[in-house]
Amino acid sequence: MFDINNILRNNIKNLVPYSSARDEFQGEASVFLDANENAFGSPLQTAYNRYPDPMQYQVKMKLSQIKGVPARNIFLGNGSDEAIDVLFRSFCNPGVDNVIIVPPTYGMYQVSANINDVEAKKVLLTEDYQLNLEGIAEAIDKNTKVIFICSPNNPTGNSINRDDIETLLANFTGLVIIDEAYINFSRQKTFIQELTEYANLVVLQTLSKAWGLAGLRIGMAFASEEIIEVMNKVKPPYNINEASQTLALEALANVKQVNDWIKETLEQRDKLVLALKEMPFVVDIYPSDANFVLVKTTNATAIYDFLVNQGIIVRNRTNVELCEGCLRITVGTSAENIKLIETLQQYK
Questions:
Q1: Per its Swiss-Prot or TrEMBL entry, what cofactor is needed (predicted)?
Q2: Is residue 33, in this structure, part of any structural domain at all?
Q3: Is the overall model pTM greater than 0.70, yes or no?
Q4: Domain of residue 338, residue span
Q5: Looking at residues 307-335, what average pLDDT do you find?
């Protein structure tokens, strides 16, 4: 049975969070002389002299409507990377606790573990890029606080078997964090709808991919109210700036545009896969539920270097475990994909 108090760091249990001026006063006023801001404005067309809403209430309310989740179950971070770091700092004691990652996967889990002095136990995915449940069970010990699962997975592109994830959620007494950065492109349903079923579930999403807002750096975590309360205590007081909040609200009003882009991306992905299959140096193209494809080639480094010389940048993943010889190729526009294919046809 999951109990947050069993995995929460003692210093975080007793943490009194920083109380900002905007935390202490909530309401309407005409004169603000409480936060030592510049009362005269900003040297910009838009004034950014006032601190932003520390809890991003308006953005969360809009996301609540779109995602079907109460605002109290939403955490916003400076990218998903901040949410990952906050979870480490909230639940993992440096030099004592450990987490489990399942390579090949998103590299930031390992980096954040290293920064926070937390051991990251690696349990490789199977050859078809699914969870090794037996290996994960063997790796878990009394100091294992978190299991990270990326689904659809980066860099492989596939979704992780839902039943396997639910097995972990039902049997692990720590947090199971499902990173759904690419869920908008997937045939698999989001795990957000399972929040009421599993108290130890944290779902990460982002506005960087399908929503096209990578430059704004807005990541989302969805979890129980008690987990979100902990994350809000640990985060910096004004972690999402005013410009990002304003632009995010504007973007979130354009769901149809995003859905149209998703449909176009999936159509372009299918065309790209068909064209790549005709290349003599392509050994395999793995099934993808994301806006990229993982392509096994005869010589990934040589092909990568050739493309770089032609001004086309893909990702060389040949040095990643279980991705030897592989390139990760993002699905571009029709024109970009055609240029890629025409260039690859010149590769000898």
A1: pyridoxal 5'-phosphate
A2: no
A3: yes
A4: 256-344
A5: 98
